[in-house]
Amino acid sequence: MNYIYGIILSGGTGTRMSSSVPKQFLKLKNEELLRHSVKAFQNWGLCKSIVVVANEEHIKQTEEILSDLLSPNDRIVTGGNTRHASTLLGLSAINFSKNDVILIHDGARPFLSDKELHEITNEILKFGSATLASKVSETVVSSNENKVEKILDRDSIWLIKTPQGLHSSLLELLLKQDLESEPTDLCSWTESIGVKPRLIASNPFNLKITFKEDLELAESYWNQFIQWKRGN
After folding, report:
1. Residue 34 CA to chain centroid, in angstroms?
2. What angle do CA 66, 229, 14 make, to 5 degrees?
3. Residue 64, burial from CB neighbour count under 10 angstroms (0-12, 13-18, 19+)
4. Are 100 and 4 in contact (CB under 8 A)?
5. For residue range 116-143, what is the model confidence (pLDDT) as tens digits?
6. Model confidence, pTM
7. For residue 152, what is the DSSP state?
8. In whole angstroms, what is the distance from residue 214 CA to residue 218 CA?
9. What SS3 state is found at 143?
10. Peptide bond preceding 22 in cis form (omega within 30 of 0)
11. What are 138-187's pLDDT values in tens digits?
12. Helices and strands: H and E segment counts in the chain
């Protein structure tokens, strides 16, 4: 039997938002961003366990915010200094077998649907690794000294979102690696052993809240996202 585990990375400090409040605790529609992300997994209902990885300084606040959402199987664990370190700590809190699916999501991405969680899980079971992503619609260039160097083929360019996920059978290989540089995300990690993640088209509202303007944009997206979910 395949079990599904969710890891939600919630280690933001609020620096890029020029805020004293970490972004995962900022509110969208009167509810913290982190709650929106956790509720997406809880409402889906197919995860055996959810692990929230939080900054050590914010463990207590995370516990308070999620006290009514997390089940006895769920965990809140202390994260590391980097995204990859936090991912490893999240993985260490899961008692997975070789036939499981692990989904990794950003705590500051509130727009996620059941449909997308189903799709990414199915692709992982078939191909080993997958991620939500979106295609670009504008011209994309490479540059040098603030000048256009080359026009890139936008039909082959995607913007990576989350959740990202992998089949647990890959972890033995991944964890044995002697990495020259730390992976920036799950896609670069699985690609390092030759597993190229499948791309799944994300909903158009899958915004990662990073700057103050992003939160304002998320507020304007809310009703449109609810309508999108109802139609999908």
Report:
1. 11
2. 40
3. exposed
4. yes
5. 999 999 999 999 999 999 999 999 999 9
6. 0.94
7. E
8. 6
9. strand
10. no
11. 999 999 999 999 999 999 999 999 999 999 999 989 999 888 889 999 99
12. 7, 11
